[in-house]
Amino acid sequence: MGVYKIPENGDRMGTLEVYYNSRTGKNCALAYGYGATYGSHAWKMVGISRSGATRYADQDSGNYTTYAGPVYVSARDTCINVNASIHFKNKFYKRSLTSAHCD
């Protein structure tokens, strides 16, 4: 499991959580709002893929009050890429993980 601040630097506007299920070989990710973006309608997005992929294996986005996701990818014995965004008051807050969680 990994918990990451959105954005990486500056005021925290959200949280990216990444999980791995060793039984199924799947990774899961969610993007939560935090502070002013939690509990209020704000655009939230999370996408996940195996490293080296040209597009997301799974993605969720929308005007959510709490979180986007969960999204899943089968990634036993390989790394993943995860991207999360929160749009609030005309500003995008982003967090990206590249070649991470190499289970």
Discrete helix count: 0
CATH T-level topology: Immunoglobulin-like
Strand content: over 45%
CATH class: Mainly Beta
Distance between termini? 11 Å
What radius of gyration results from the CA coordinates? 13 Å
Number of strands: 8
- DSSP helix fraction: under 10%
Residue runs with pLDDT of under 50 for 5 or more positions: none
Mean pLDDT across residues? 95
- Sheet with the most strands, sense and barrel status: 4 strands, antiparallel
Shape: elongated
SSE ordering: EEEEEEEE
CATH architect. name:
Sandwich
Domain count? 1
Strand order in the sheet with the most strands? 1-2-3-6
Please state the structural category: mainly beta
Topology of this protein?
Elements (H helix, E strand, L loop, with lengths): L1 E5 L7 E8 L4 E8 L8 E9 L7 E7 L2 E8 L5 E9 L2 E10 L3
Antiparallel strand pairs: 1-2, 2-3, 3-6, 4-5, 4-7, 7-8
Keyword list:
single chain, 103 residues
How do you describe this structure in short?
It contains no helices and 8 strands. The protein is mainly beta.
